[in-house]
Amino acid sequence: MQIPIETETLANGLRVTYSEDHVAPLVAVNLWYHVGSANEREGRTGFAHLFEHMLFQGSANVEANEHFELVQRAGGTLNGSTWLDRTNYYETVPSNQLAIALWLEADRMGSLLPAMTQQKLDTQRDVVKNERRWSVDNQPYGTWWEKLPALTFPSTHPYHHSLIGSMEHLSEASLQDVAEFFATWYTPDNAVLTIAGDFDPAEARALVHQYFGAIPRNASPPSRPDFAVPPRFERPMREVVEDDVQLPRAIVAMRIPPSGSDAWYAASVAAAVLGMRKGSRLYRRLVRELQVAADAGAYTFDLTKGADLFVVDATANANVTPDRLEQAVHDELDAFALDGVTDAEIARALALIETDFVSSLQSAQERADTLSKFATYFGDAALVNEQPARYQRVTASEVTAFAKEWCTADNRATLLYVPQQPAAQEEAA
């Protein structure tokens, strides 16, 4: 399928993508800012995520929480999310409500700071702290998504520190920090706007120019951090985490070329061969045959700067020891690196990848988000249309070569979760 795509760049640097589709009377507005936890300064971890919450606290023309109210009254949905190197905000509304969604995004881009108050910062800081308690500190295995980057990237690397941040750093965030972060990163020349779904192109362009055109660009664009790392770990790494969990879990990461590179497509297909759905190698071997795992999968982190991570993730069955689970995962990776893949495995993987990719683009919201991603990371939203063909060019020999080069024992970092010992459980209680 070919996604209709038109693009333009406003005088202030805002890049805009339009994707018209009249299948359903809905339109999605998606705004990506090219900033995430990787852009936080030392001592302010978690600030990008905190700032995502602050953007829903009103502006010069919108009261606190009114953004939610206006979109929901219009029959729409909305949210935002933060990742290592991007933050996005999105609304899906009935077609005749496009103007309100665009105006709200433009209004907070252009006039957020006058509405910032210490009370709003304190409130949202507490919200984020509670989110950390719920999703990380008190969640089984919840620390994995900050411990894995800390294990696999050096302490000075932008990806090393926690995305959600530490309690100490969140407590120290000031209103001045908020103002500086907004002025530095939340400018039109650091943003991508996508409109996808049922809209009139002339009307949409007119609204974009009317609402966003006068917002000034950053007169002093910030420098980007250095994401360079050696291409491989060159030695096995391992961290054991005692946690309040019932079952062991082994997460093994390998450093690979960044997302979007030629070698990365072979990695993506390799992840599908190893761990996509119940017909994958890992599921068949670890879950069905050996019965050492209750679940097993593989995926890439999809990092576009410096290096990406290829991850195998398995949770043990009851009565399976941590060592037994860990050894079984490494045995499968050893076999993968030694034997490579077959043409039949590649055919299955490519079919699954293409089906998932095409299916995701049926949703206006998912389509808008995907277009924003390609425009932000690679400078060209139209690359979306090249993805199925690009994947189809991946061969069994390329995936086999990937496995032999990148999945060897000296390029693995293992994060092993083990149930707490009784003494540790009593102390925690």
Contiguous runs where pLDDT drops below 50 for at least 5 residues: none
Q: Helix count? A: 16
Largest sheet: 6 strands, mixed
- Compressed to H and E, one letter per element, the order equals EEEHHEEHHHHHEHEEHHEEHHHHHEH
SS strand fraction: 15-25%
**What does the radius of gyration come to?**
23 Å
Mean pLDDT: 95
Question: Can you walk through the features of this model?
Answer:
The structure is a single chain. The protein has helices at 47-54, 66-73, 98-111, 118-137, 144-152, 167-172, 175-185, 201-212, 262-275, 281-289, 322-339, 343-360, 364-378, 387-392, 396-406, 422-428; strands spanning 6-9, 15-20, 26-33, 77-82, 87-94, 191-197, 237-243, 249-256, 293-300, 308-316, 413-419. With 429 residues, it is α+β, with helices and mostly antiparallel strands. It has a 6-stranded mixed sheet, sandwiched between helices. The chain has a 5-stranded mixed sheet with strand order 7-11-8-10-9, sandwiched between helices. Helix 1 (47-54) crosses helix 4 (118-137) and helix 11 crosses helix 15 (396-406).
